[in-house]
Write a structure and sequence with these properties.
alpha/beta; globular; 8-stranded parallel beta sheet; TIM Barrel; disordered C terminus; single chain; 211 residues
Length: 211
């Protein structure tokens, strides 16, 4: 589970990181959709318990700054050759956005085994992801966009899904209001959802192997 964070005030970065960690979420993607995003990266990267990625990365310059500030992985909304190549030069995992078979083939040709599926729900949701995954054996997906408590379980149960990104546990209004306890509660519930889905999927996988 990857919380997709949009920050309006860089001073909220550290308390938000602490709230996520307290809820058991040790991975987050801070987007560069606001000026505060880049400023928040270095602050949140101080928390060694948090695997921090940077999202909405649009060019190699943003890759360089994000990595220098401590980003452990890079996420982009679409497939950009220059962004992918710069991440590979720096040895940083990159998740480019894909939503078509052509984009997935480009990612595969670039040597990537994991891509972002974005925007997931408006691009056909889980049925579209499953259809795209079928011809690309071994490719894993991180769907984001329109995913929340009502549909996250179906995505998590899909074998082609490595992780799911979403913002429902870190809504901007709760961050602005500094309701860190509520964010911790939502994060803990997200972690519980992942555990429940894993518990359900293991017996199914064992049965499939046995058959």
């Amino acid at each position: 589970m990857v919380p997709v964070v949009v920050l309006d005030d860089p001073d909220d970065a550290l308390p938000l990181a602490d709230a996520l960690i307290a809820g058991g979420l040790c991975c987050a993607e801070v987007t560069l959709r606001t000026p505060a995003g880049q400023l928040a990266v270095a602050a949140m990267a101080r928390r060694s318990e948090l695997l921090l990625g940077v999202g909405t990365v649009l060019d190699p310059e943003q890759v360089d700054r994000s990595v220098a500030d401590g980003a452990a992985f890079v996420v982009s909304p679409g497939f950009d050759d220059a962004v992918v190549e710069r991440c590979q030069e720096l040895g940083v995992p990159v998740l480019p956005g894909t939503v078509t078979a052509t984009e997935i083939q480009r990612a595969r040709r670039a040597g990537l085994g994991v891509v972002k599926f974005f925007p997931a729900e408006t691009s056909g949701g889980l049925p579209a992801l499953q259809a795209l995954a079928a011809p690309f054996h071994g490719m894993r997906f991180v769907p984001t966009g329109g995913i929340g408590p009502a549909n996250v379980g179906s995505y998590l149960r899909c074998p082609a899904v490595l992780a799911v990104g979403g913002s429902w546990m870190v809504p901007r209004d709760l961050v602005r209001e500094h309701r860190w306890d509520e964010i911790t509660r939502l994060s803990a519930r997200a972690v519980q959802t992942v555990a429940e889905c894993r518990a359900e999927s293991v017996p199914a996988q064992v049965a499939a192997v046995a058959s």
